[in-house]
Amino acid sequence: MNALLAFSRLVDRLNLLVGKAVTWLTLVVVVVSAGNAVVRKVFHTSSNAWLELQWYLFGAIFLLAAGYTLLKNEHVRVDIVAQKLSQRTQIWIEVLGVVFFLLPACVLIMWLSWPVFVDSFVTDEQSSNPGGLVRWPVKLLIPVGFCLLVLAGLSHLIKCVAFLMGKGPDPRERDRGKSAEEELAEEIAREAQAREAAAHGSTQGGR
């Protein structure tokens, strides 16, 4: 188990590095998107290469950050029922979900997408749009992104098993602050309380 946990930490560091690098792509996408919009509106022209670059970068963010998102426990979970179960039962659900759903689906997509990338690379596939970009780099993102997600899934599985064996903390709580959804819910609750207090105050003032 110690060796597996060491492997898990190594995978986590890899996905953490990739995730932090990908965050900068968000800024690049914003700049490219804004530049495309300005050029189109001001100069009444556009470039297929720059438009496709915008799509490629968006795909890179989505695919390469999937493993990082799993590491941070930010993937959407429908846990209305699960949250009422015991902690160990919830971890068992995590284990079954990773083994029977996450890993098989990701491995299948990797297996199916690799020949597509190889064919694109060998034939030096180009965009069908005039002035577009070469296609194989964006097709390479698919197997690479799902490979990172598979590694993140294995890391999560190891941490779940370690927890069940009493050799590790709950992996769902690891390095977790409040999620964006939790912060939004709290903000909505505060606004509702403020409106209720204001309405109550105006009612008392009217009396």
Automatic annotation (TrEMBL):
The chain crosses the membrane at residues 21-43, 55-71, 91-114, 140-166. Its main location: membrane. Keywords: Cell inner membrane, Cell membrane, Membrane, Transmembrane, Transmembrane helix, Transport. It comes from the Bacteria. It holds the Pfam family DctQ. It is found in: Cell inner membrane. InterPro entries: DctQ, TRAP_DctQ. Part of the tripartite ATP-independent periplasmic (TRAP) transport system. The complex comprises the extracytoplasmic solute receptor protein and the two transmembrane proteins. Belongs to the TRAP transporter small permease family. PANTHER family: 2,3-DIKETO-L-GULONATE TRAP TRANSPORTER SMALL PERMEASE PROTEIN YIAM, SLL1102 PROTEIN. This is TRAP transporter small permease protein. It comes from Pigmentiphaga daeguensis.
